[in-house]
Amino acid sequence: MKAFVTGGTGFIGRQLIRQLVERGYTVHALARGQAGQEQVRQLGAIPVLGDITERESCVKR
User: Fold this and answer.
1) Residues 38, 9: contact at Cβ < 8 Å?
2) pLDDT above 80: residue 54
3) DSSP-derived 3-state class of residue 49
4) What ranges do the domains of the chain cover?
């Protein structure tokens, strides 16, 4: 199972990533910068560099 999380570095996003990873999901999470990417990695997700306001950041790769 796969999931894509926007806002993965926010309060709710971090909790969501943790729960999804615990349930066996492969999680990709949007992060705007290096610090956010590292935070996402530490939660067990795969960071996707981008911004929710940029369509290209959120399309399937």
Assistant:
1) no
2) no
3) strand
4) 2-58
List, in sequence order, the alpha helices (H) in the chain.
Answer: 11-22, 34-42, 55-58
Tell me: the pLDDT tens digits for 6-43? 999 999 999 999 999 999 999 999 999 999 999 999 99
This prediction's pTM: 0.84
> Which has the closest alpha carbon to 21: 41, 49, 48?
41
Whether the Cβ atoms of residue 4 and residue 47 lie closer than 8 Å to each other: no
CATH architecture observed for domain 2-58: 3-Layer(aba) Sandwich (3.40)
The C-alpha atoms of residue 14 and residue 40 are separated, in whole angstroms, by 8
